[in-house]
Design brief:
By secondary structure, the protein is an all-beta fold. The protein is built from no helices and eleven strands. The N and C termini lie far apart (34 Å).
Amino acid sequence: DVQLVESGGGSVQAGGSLRLSCVVSGFTASRYCMGWFRRSPGKNPSGVAFVDSDGSTTYADSVKGRFTISKDSAKNTLYLQMNSLKPEDTAIYYCAAGLPANIWVATDYNYWGQGTQVTV
């Protein structure tokens, strides 16, 4: 079975940091595009950061310079280091994996984690 399991969320003061992890099982994460989406109350999920199978990364403008996405192929794990957190970063964060036609389109991803809450 394919599973994506996020962890690392929590409550932090503005300006603080958190690191989210997403452990993948059932497929080789390095072969897919993987990303982080977030959903704030009453809003649709929005893309935060992505890392493609070739290692290239893409970030939403709102998190550039503050968030860093990375993956550890040996551990089949995706990370999101979040620094200088702001109240507007409060959301449920989801990791996703797939072969999207458009990395920003949530429905293009095949696999999703259960989400982890981040509160700033």
